[in-house]
TrEMBL record:
Stored PANTHER family: GLUTAMATE 5-KINASE (PTHR43654), ISOPENTENYL PHOSPHATE KINASE (PTHR43654:SF1)
NCBIfam families hit by this protein: proB
Organism: Acidithiobacillus caldus
Domain of life of the organism encoding this protein: Bacteria
BP GO annotations: amino acid biosynthetic process
One Pfam family named in its UniProt record: AA_kinase
Keyword Magnesium attributed: no
Keywords from the UniProt entry: Amino-acid biosynthesis, ATP-binding, Cytoplasm, Kinase, Nucleotide-binding, Proline biosynthesis, Transferase
Domain PUA, chain residue ranges per copy: 299-375
One MF term in the entry's GO annotations: RNA binding
Record's GO cellular component terms: cytosol
Name used for this protein in its record: Glutamate 5-kinase
InterPro entries linked to this entry: AceGlu_kinase-like_sf, Asp/Glu/Uridylate_kinase, G5K_ProB, Glu/AcGlu_kinase, Glu_5kinase, Glu_5kinase/COase_Synthase, Glutamate_5-kinase_CS, PUA
Amino acid sequence: MRQRQHEAVPTPRADVQAQAQRWVVKIGSSLLTNDGTGLDLAWIARWMEQIRHLHRAGKEVVLVSSGAVSAGTALLGWSQRPGDLASRQAAASVGQSALIHHYEKILQQVARPEDPPLHCGQVLLTHDELRNRKRYLNARNILRVLLDRNVLPVVNENDAISYRPIQLGDNDTLAAMVCNLLDADLLVLLTDQDGLFSADPRRDPDACFLAEVTAGDPRLEAIAGGGGSGVGTGGMLAKVKAAARAARSGTATVIAHGRHPDILPELVEGKAIGTFFRVRRPVLKARKRWLSDHLRVPGSLILDDGAVRALREKGRSLLSVGVLRVEGEFHRGDLVACRAQDGREIARGLIDLDASVMRRILGHSRAELEQDPTIADSVV
């Protein structure tokens, strides 16, 4: 397994980009489509040429692609992107097949005679796949096999079957989760903006461009604040959060304008285009990344002060005696959040007991619990 250690002195940006071996490139809906309806095939051809360039340079590339709903909207003859979930799912079902067809066709059209075979492989994910440990590992194995076989994985959320309570939400988040799956070296988020500014440049003429920042810096979320283009689901805030999420596996991030000429080849050359998010935080181990990547948990345990200290300072298992309250519904083996009494999340872990059992044992002493062989004293 590829594992990176946290570096005390960050590697210069140019070196990170040039040396990055495994790339995750996300292209947003606002770039892929013509005003949200139909696909911009001319620009898709340019990006496929650039991905071919990366492959010639010996890089591995995973493409995270939006655009299925917009493509389906055009094919179904609708004048605008549908607002209700069922219609969006129908559009995604129609549009996803068109999207992967065009990627494969154009990828072959832009090939040079000396290029080795390179094909697209479609990978559609949902939150269910990524929150279940076995499915998560299976998704990782599939992506690794595709890369090993010189295939370009084209990843998207499975919008046709995802429903709002379990949706990943946006492909910026999905791209970051793919980075954590694969220990990617570089995440490139291509958008319709030049990068991150100190304020929204569309509203504030004094906004300053931020060329290099630190992933996970809490000030960045306040800066990113505003919404997106109106075509996709992710704005600049989602991209800043994605950079912080990707940093958990040591992945640096670039947010750049996708229609900058030869954006990907120039990044390989180490050029300073867009905003670079350096990594200056400890790299989480693979299992902890999986735990932290869960966007939603079915329930929470509210802890007393002693249990909070034990988790924070000693990393011990959580004992039932330290639980004050149970929120939500969950079953043994589910991931739950451990929270302080003020609601702050302290930790996450896999629960050993159903929520119904947890509620039954609250307020009982350890001696009383030991009389019941069906109850584990250590719950997380």
